[in-house]
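Sat 14:20. Reprocessing the chain from the morning session after the first attempt stalled halfway. Input below, unchanged.
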Amino acid sequence: MKGAARWLRVGFLVVMCGPPPALGQEAAIAGREATLVDSILGLMTLEEKLGQLAQYSARWNPDLRTPEATPEHLEMVREGRVGSFLSLYGAGPLEELQRVAVEESRLGIPLLFAHDVIHGFRTIFPIPLAEAATWDPEAVERAARVAAVEATGAGVHWTFAPMVDVARDPRWGRIVEGSGEDPYLGSVLARARVRGFQGEDLADPTTLLATAKHYVAYGGAEGGRDYNTVDVSERTLHEIYLPPFRAAVYEGVASVMAAFNEIGGVPMHAHDALIDGLLREEWGWDGVLVSDYTGILELIQHGVAADSLAAGGLALRAGVDIDMMSGIYGEKLAGAVRAGRLDEGLVDAAVRRVLLAKARLGLFEDPYRYADPAREQAVTLAAEHRRAAREMARRAIVLLQNDGTLPFSKDVGTIAVIGPLADDRDAPLGPWAGAGRVEDVGTVLAGIRDAVGEAAVSFVMGAGTADEDTTGFAEAVRAAETADAVVLVLGESRQISGEAASRHELGLPGVQLELAERVLAAGRPTAVVLMNGRPLAIPWLAENAPAILETWFLGTETGPAVADVLFGDVSPGGRLPVTFPRAVGQVPIYYNHKNTGRPPSEEKYTSKYLELPSTPLYPFGHGLSYTTFEYGEPTLSRPTMSAVDTLTVSVEVTNTGDRTGDEVVQMYVRDLVRSVTPPVMELKGFERVTLAPGETLTVAFPIVIEDLAFYDTDGWWVVEPGTFAVMVGGSSAETREVRFEATEGIRLRYTPAGLRMAAERESDR
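Finished this time. Tokens:
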């Protein structure tokens, strides 16, 4: 009996012999899956087991515009020496490759197909940093759901997303892939993306295995230089970098990817204390731990392994289940296991987790369930997907400043659109653009022409994104001088954001700033549209530009969304998920910093720079609207809080302008005095609300004991009695404060039981 038929038969026997219904439906299903996996494992040779732990990449076919497996890979599949592929998609080709696995290999175990579905598949949504700027978890979840529907239509089972790394250094190129600098916002959006990718049940063929990456603290790379060393304290690790991973785990994320960096001198691909210890034992996670690309082989370069065999042993013992592209597990470890130098039980545990992931996706019941060319055609660039991408792009745009220039009237007259990115179809896709294509992208120029008519719009490129050519300046200035309004589109190409794209400075590349100086000197009403994958240091623009829109890389629907905001069809409501510095010398700069013993002041011997203020150019949470909002004084449901209380802080927010607009109401907490130095503030709640002119809304946030906890010197999460400040407002820099007392001390610990911490009062110790 071959392939799918064999495992359908085994599945039937498992159903007959599985756990009784009294265990509940979910437990019964889990029991059947485990029994099925164990039955398969018992039939496997050592080489076949190690093959399940081996992942290889595809090659690009320029004629078909899709990736494909090589003939060598096909033979390895027939021999049972491959468990998964990355960077493969296309329902037809994957159906054929899966057929080879289930019908031509000895055991017929189906393959897993993975791809980097980061912010959309064919319909490209805004980059994750831009999605974070929406401060809208429901919208972020919808975007991931659309991506999952399109990707699974193309045969993909598994995405290497969400990236949940906290990033405080915008020089790091991969800040583009995450949710910014805050662990709370990052945790909320991590859960939203996991829900979107994985849905309610992985047995649904429109769901993907999600991957929380990169575990852990990859975003703390020294100097913002990708792949670099990370040196963080235990407290910073637990309070800043681990929370989004913990949130993803409690949301049921199916996979976690190890990071390239080290922690405390131990590379993450060999860090058994943080993988098998914290992640699996303490948090109770049972998913698949995948290496990053050649991450296991790189243990040699790290200096902790003498050769590839030693590297493979370190990784397997640490709990890394799948070897991505190193070729070590599948080609090197069998001899070590047979010689007794490596425990086969470690191999079995890893294989069991991989097979269980395949079972949860339903691949043993129907290995072709994701390979449906008809569904692929129906869902690719579907009209409702493009509408969702446009709505998300609108919500991600942040109005950094505005002197009243925006919104432009559609009757403004002639508009000069100037800048190297105005008619660029490539940049809006951003890095890791799935299966996105430039021909699908609406540019800013096209969006403006669609909004006001082609006859009213002129276009001059003016300069390139990164070169030193100024020959286009004169034409750009003439266009600006003869126009009634100017849209100046500046920023980065997508090639200088993302992996291996760290920058040593954060200004506009090339001669773009000089172009801006010349164009703005024309004195016309001008809106600067920024397109970029990281915070930029743009103090001259901040001082001289009438209006600045931060549009990030918005994806397929860039042009229509930008035009919607420029002409006031939509009032911008995005807020910054990351701090914008005045200069690269301020980096790292983030809102939840420590106060120090000498906080900045006009006194000489305090923590500040000689040449510029210590404050950021634009703070975390900042963003303007085409209307204005007024906050009342926050109030508390009670002045004290015990360990079992839920305190509520409420505030009235009023739209005091003449347009409907969105406000992101943000709630921060500070412990005024404790045994370990506190941050000046920590985000603990937010809500994006829409208010009509004159409308007042009361926004309420619950505060529970876990919101007050910190990681103490003994490795416990604790709350100490004392005074806490609650700050509510429209950004981290503009809040109103109220205080309460925590009346009892408590220590807490995360357990596999759920998101809440298991508590033990001081009096019970």
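Residues 1-5, 8-23, 761-765 have pLDDT under 50 and may be disordered.
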